[in-house]
Amino acid sequence: MDFSASMINSTSGYVWVAPTPMVMMPPPAVEEEVAVVKPTWRLYANILVAVLQALQFGWSTSQMNNSIFNNEEDCNARPIAPGTCLMFPGHTKTEWTIAVSSWIVGGMIGSLLTGRVSNKLGRKPTMMANCVFMLAGGAVQATASTITIFTIGRVFAGIAAGGSTAVIPGFIGEICPPHLRSKLGVCFQISITLGHLLVAITFFFASTSTGWRYIAGFPIILASLFLLLAPVVLVESPAWLLMVNKPKEAEKELARLFGEDNVYTAKKWINQQQEDPESKREGSVRLQDLGMSMIAPAPDAGQKSSLSRLFSSLLLPQMLTAIGVAGAQQLTGVNAVFFYSSGIFKQAGLSDSRIGVLLVNFVNVLPTLVCGMLAARVGNRMLILYGFVGMLLSAVGITVSLVASLSPLAIVFVALYVTTFGASLGPLAWGVMADLFPDDVRAVGCSICVGCSWLCSLTVGLVYPYLAAALDNYSFVPFMYTITLSFLFFFSIVPDTYGKTIQEIQDEFNAKWQKSKKKPQWRLSGNSQIPVLG
Question: Whole-structure pTM over 0.85, yes or no?
């Protein structure tokens, strides 16, 4: 390559290099082509099939949130009045709390195991294997003769839910073009909220001594439907195929998702996303102007495992930030509503808590549907910050309504709480977590973050019943503090990921966290994409 025409720009300090005629007409820039790529119907079909597993997540979250199934006063009465304490009559508060929270324990197990499995076997086989736990969980719960056996079934259902949270948001991010990633990423949370709503509807006709078994067994239908459709509809993640050095298979899947004419463009943005941020800073050469996915590592750049790279100095900020996002999603108290809102409404004096549960889950669906459009206007980060403000005001309102025993006001503020959550942090957190990681470490990174999310959810699930008993009407006061801390965390640390490529997000972190690192680096020269040392 001829470097004789090089000259230095006095303003920018960059070295401009005149390329040889062989590269005078490089392929169009990724940013110019990403916006015009129109997916085929298969992209949307893939997302619809994938989020069937998210429906099981929402369903299992709220399937026990019915005061007719469990009310401490009714279950402690002797004899137990007919039509009360319908699930395993006579169970204790501790047994019920363990049964509710065992699902979260399973979620932790599933989320932590799924990352490595997904990296080894691929996204599609992992999702199909996850259905085994959906089937097992539904079958064991529906046929359980004791609350102990039912609890074991909840663990299996939790493993399935944890597996879906670890693999599906990342899968959606990998098959979507950058400009659609946030809009379509909310489909995962939409499916979760639909699960909440559907199970709340069943409480009006399945609140019987046997009806709860049909509720518990419904995920069997979801798993069967997924296994029927997945072999025909679902693609393997092209990003994963490129990562395991299967470019031909990746091109076939990209053609199914975006059409033959757009394979090159789609491959370009995936290659950009898969650029190794560590090797980039330690001497890598990327020949993007030749349309090649080639990285020439520096002599001292060794191969590292995904786990060690995640906790290296170059990716640790992303890792800690993603864990913080996961924690904020759970510790702000939303699961206290979905696990125990029937008790909250009983506490506020509502005669039929099922009405309150249904209304809350109904309004939870609506904002999630428009979340993608709102994010397009203000960005992910700003929308989440607005959500924290709404959640804080709602928590204050819930406390006031409980103190004043105003049941209509309690419904309004609980509904407002889940509305602001559903329009911001709820759906966007999954995509933000996935977007913070490069493709080659995303599965393991998301797995760790989702595991932390489940740990926080377990904390809320176990602690809230006793917190409510100790603080009575002031049980939401601790969440006011966690919401405030989460707001400060997002405001000061979390970047906006909307509409950005994975590499742009990595560069934003590098600019913020690596300013003090003064090492010789390869960088792009001027408008050319030829790397020069400087």
Answer: no
